Amino acid sequence: MASLCGLGRRGAAAAAAAALVFLLALASLPASASAALHVVGDRQKWAPSVNYTEWAARNRFYVSDWLVFYFEKGMYDVVQVRNETAYNHCQADDPVLNWSRGRSFAMQLNHTGPYYFICSRGYCYGGMKLAIQVEALPPPAPAPAPRPSAATAAGPRALWAAAAAALAALL
Fold it and tell me: What is the pLDDT of residues 101-137, one digit of tens each?
């Protein structure tokens, strides 16, 4: 490895050391949380005869998660209603949204609090409705405490000496 793109031996070693430092710094960053995708009703999808209360109880919903409703085209719809009263009485006359086209509907949960969904085509009275509570994303878990190695147990000077020896070996 006499040269790395014309950098020479010392330049290549410095570039390798810089890359190593960058990779170590990158590895030490906390993992970012990602949004979950919830298929409403799981395998049974958005359809009559599914207990959506039990389904919702098995899931936790956070801001930025996605709900996906899959349903039979022309048979069902997804209506987000404004409050628990409209949900309990299957009232779709003042919806937040109404989706009846296609075979699916996806929406991102963008705020904390309750969300209420019903099917306005008569199936709500048989239980085709969903109420969920969306929570704020929990803070990331703290990083585990590092276990002392032989170099760190000896103190910071030993750690720097080991790093300098590794860098000198590259040069």
Answer: 999 999 999 999 999 999 999 999 999 999 999 999 8
| HEC per residue, the chain | CCCCCCCHHHHHHHHHHHHHHHHHHHHHCCCCCCCCEEECCHHHCCCCCCCHHHHHHCCCEECCCEEEEECCCCCCCEEEECCHHHHHCCCCCCEEEEECCCCEEEEECCCCEEEEEECCCCHHHHCCEEEEEEECCCCCCCCCCCCCCHHHHCCHHHHHHHHHHHHHHHC
CB 56, CB 130: distance < 8 Å: yes
The model's pLDDT over 31-88, given as tens digits with 9 standing for 90+, comes to 445 789 999 999 999 999 999 999 999 999 999 999 999 999 999 999 999 999 999 9
Q: Which fold has domain 37-135?
A: Immunoglobulin-like (2.60.40)
Q: Hey, what are 156's tokens?
A: 């910071």
Enumerate the CATH 2.60.40.420 domain ranges in the chain, comma separated. Answer: 37-135
HSE on the CB side for 46, CA within 13 Å?
31
Residues 6+ apart with CB under 8 A from 125: 90
